[in-house]
Amino acid sequence: MDPVSALDEPLKKTLGPATAKVMAEHLDLHTVGDLLHHYPRRYEERGRLTPLSDLPLDEDVTVVAQVADSRIHTFNQGRGQRLEITLTDGSGRLQLVFFGRGLHKPHKELPPGSRGMFAGKVSVFNRKLQLAHPTYVPLGGSGDAEDTEEAVDAFAGKLIPIYPACKGMESWKITKAVDAVLPRAGEAVDPLPEALRAGRGFVPLPEALLKVHRPESRADIEDARTRLKWDEAFVLQVALARRRFADSQLPAVPREPVAGGVLDAFDARLPFTLTEGQRKVTAEIFADLATEHPMHRLLQGEVGSGKTLVALRAMLATVDAGGQAAMLAPTEVLAQQHHRSITEMMGELAQGGMLGGAEQATKVVLLTGSMGAAARRQALLDLVTGEAGIVIGTHALIEDKVRFHDLGLVVVDEQHRFGVEQRDALRSKGKQPPHLLVMTATPIPRTVAMTVFGDLETSVLDQLPAGRSPIASHVVPALDKPHFLARAWERVREEVGKGHQAYVVCPRIGDAEDEKAEKGGKGGTAEKAGKKGNQSAEDEAEKRPPLAVLEVAGQLRAGPLAGLAVEVLHGRMQPDDKDAVMRRFAAGEVDVLVATTVIEVGVNVPNATAMVIMDADRFGVSQLHQLRGRVGRGSAPGLCLLVTDMPEASPARARLGAVAATLDGFELSRIDLEQRREGDVLGQAQSGVRSSLRMLAVIDDEEVIAAAREEAVAVVAKDPDLTHSPELRTALDALLDTEREQYLDKG
User: Fold this and answer.
1) What is the CA radius of gyration of the chain?
2) How many CB atoms lie within 10 A of CB 271?
3) How does DSSP assign 617-634, residue by residue?
4) Burial class (CB in 10 A: 0-12, 13-18, 19+), 506
5) pLDDT tens figures, 259-303
6) Cα–Cα–Cα angle for 707, 710, 714, nearest 5°?
């Protein structure tokens, strides 16, 4: 049989249609190869043989003992049954407990006087040591000593694989299914070039698959994991290296800054000097813009580090070089905010062709879906004639009607909100491929950037501009200490009393749409990352619907913030209404803005100094850091209060404590990513497509990813089409089927 088709064989052929259906629907496993790459999550080690007198509590043990007695008890008025078996080995006694329909088999197989080997976790009930639903092997009566020893060796200390499972497909069923397909592991195609494999001392892929599923020792697991991590890292890095190589072959118009143009005029009117970080990053971007191949650069940085200013200078340099620049923003609020702040920064330099415009001026236009027909027509005309050097817009920029005179640079803000089709649709509007600058305000650890944005060169801004004030952050345990919440509202009033403003952020809107969703059983819309534990207080806090903007605003107006100008902002408001609220807030006419996460990125109101985040535990760590970055943007210090009902010992409170303890976004992003599943790290907007990373942990395996990248670049440089590596080509095609193309662009 052809080796590729052996692993491509549908599971229903091997396992039967019923099992295959559950695996396909709930685990997204369709072929023999899929199942072989469904690795154990962990391994349980049946404890070494332990005398009953020495049993450690809460540990897995294996014991050989004799059944002293066995009886079935009924409870719950005869509706329930419990089998209790007492064991003895001469040194002590131990109770086994079985419930429900599963008790009849052990009752039959383990009569008094019989011997057996039993494995499970030791617990205490009614002051007696017990094993609940243990695994066991009957050993007969007194038994042959040699047979018993052999059975004990085979049973005790064995590594039991525990697989990611689902309802109807428990781990032990997956174990049986893997046993059925494991002989096919020998036919797996090895993607690693032989020289690389030998040079790094890796076991062959078939051996790695056998060892990961049926290890004899912890060393086997280590060998297998090392090899399988490398496969994932290397194939992904080859895909990214080929993408970079293909992009480097495209032609682009060099856009070198011109002396005496709009950029120089803009720099001359800046009331401050650029930070060292801004100068360094600008030099990297300008060097890329001057090349004859398209720039592909990721600009990431701390909240408030001045990314927009860096991007604007790149856009002005492009205008000076005869091109146009487009900035793509994820929301209308953010597009309007960028347009407003850029035109304010540029002053008369943004009034090209208008009365009062400076000599070197260009025109800066806004293009969003909700604009009136006349304004939209004018904006489109300004773009096609080249009158507008800079356009800032939402998805409306991608529409077919939009034409440019000469698009030279595309700036994408908040890359993770856009799919590859959207990014490429805008890039395709250039006569030749335009340069691309992708910005993100979510600090990304280097290893994640290499994995997810590996087709982009990376620039990092980790220095805040001079004059920025520190932000003090505190957790407010509203349920444990209600007076802390009362004090939080007093602090908001104090800030307003000093002439400042405040945000109050809620996870939910609380309008008719939300109510409809709740009745349909969908619950709230906020993120609930990282919540575990079974404390009743935590359960109660989670069961309550997330606090809503419209309810909280009403309560604040009538209660603790009565007499202040309190307004609301959320994503389902009409665009004109949203813009009007933001204008009033920016102008200082609104004291307190109660909003959803629509204010998360880009909103810049230097006079806003306080933020209260309600139900803060419903947000992710990075999201809280982003929100907090909206305050402390002026000369007055910022204050961020994280309100939660979660109890002190809960993981949610620990996350909030981590946010309050540091302003280092890179450190927080590591904490955030360590607490989330790998699929989340890679972006969950892949419409249910499973992550291609099963073994690699992008936070922990930084060295593997960096080494794999080096090897991948070398392989692609020698053989871009992988003509001499057909096995690698096969593995690449499996990673990059049509459904997963978006994987590389983080969704």
Assistant:
1) 31
2) 5
3) GGS-HHHHHHHHTTSS-S
4) buried
5) 999 999 999 999 888 889 999 999 999 999 999 999 988 888 777
6) 145
